[in-house]
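anyone seen this seq b4? input:
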Amino acid sequence: MATRTALVRQVRGLTLTAKADSGHWVSMDGQEEFGGSNAGSTPKELLLMALGGCTGSDVASILQKKRAPLQGMELVLTAQTAEEHPKVYTEIHTEYVFYGDGLKTGDVERAIELSTTKYCSVTAMLRASVRLTHSYTIKPAERFTSLKV
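predicted toks r here
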């Protein structure tokens, strides 16, 4: 069994920074109404982003191996939370938006299926306590606008 570690440091108030084995720092903070300074994503937001990143990288890798003409992809995750504390996610819907000319629906569906049932470890961790659903659309390649980072 592999062991992973993470370090979380308080910067000031509710502002925290964290890094794990990869060595990349991430900022976290709370909303101003709860005493934070709104200087970073909340830990719960990062969980949602982790799910999108995990399944998104799986799907992109699978489509690349299939030599699918994927120009780009976006994932829009929408979460419902419980009304009472702890306000956990009760449902998360992932909308996969694929951009590419000639993408086959069978390849897209198989890539999503493999990610959500076999490869995505974040999905596997959440599946027992959160209702996870997904859908997808395929759009023409020219509608994809890559982000400049």
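DSSP finds three helices and six strands in the chain. The helical segments are 43-65, 105-119, 121-126. kinda curious what u guys think
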